[in-house]
Amino acid sequence: MNTCMRSIVQIAAGAATVFITGCATTPAPTEQMAVARAAVADADASGAATYDAVDIRNAHDKLDAATIALGAHDYDKARRYAEEAEADANLAATRTRSLKTQRAVAEVRESLRALRAEISRSGS
Predict the structure, then answer these.
(1) Which residues contact 68 (CB under 8 A, 6 or more apart)?
(2) Quick count: other Cβ atoms within 10 Å of Cβ 3?
(3) How many CA atoms lie within 13 A of 111 on its CB side?
(4) Which listed site, 21, 55, 93, 106, has its alpha carbon 20 to 30 Å from 112?
(5) How many Å apart are CA 97 and CA 101, to the nearest integer?
(6) pLDDT of the chain, 124 residues: tens digit per residue
(7) Three-state DSSP string of the chain
């Protein structure tokens, strides 16, 4: 192959690489955005604003940042923020449910204590 032909092949190969790379952009993280929105909504519904305000606020802030990044077509950043929002929301929901369960257990124990005291007074 002569030098001219070799140069043409190299240029064509380079152009093809640039074209392929340009077409291989990151897809919009629509599924991750939907999952993050659902996780935040679940945490909100669980009462996280009352029981874990810091983590649910972080989840909302990161979901907002993901939405902004998505609008700017910065899909890598949008995906990262959406994943972080989901994690923060799941943490907030789990902590909220745990605290509610702990309070319910404490109420049951107090009721049992009061019932035992009543039985003790009645039996004496």
Answers:
(1) none
(2) 7
(3) 6
(4) 93
(5) 6
(6) 566 566 665 676 665 555 554 555 889 999 999 999 999 999 999 999 999 999 999 999 999 999 999 999 999 999 999 999 999 999 999 999 999 999 999 999 999 999 999 898 887 6
(7) CCHHHHHHHHHHHHHHHHHHHHHCCCCCCHHHHHHHHHHHHHHHHHCHHHHCHHHHHHHHHHHHHHHHHHHCCCHHHHHHHHHHHHHHHHHHHHHHHHHHHHHHHHHHHHHHHHHHHHHHHHHC
- Token pair of 95, please? 């902590």
Domain borders along the chain are 28-123
Structure pTM?
A: 0.73
The domain made up of 28-123 is a member of CATH 3.90.1150.10: no
What radius of gyration do the chain's Cα atoms show?
28
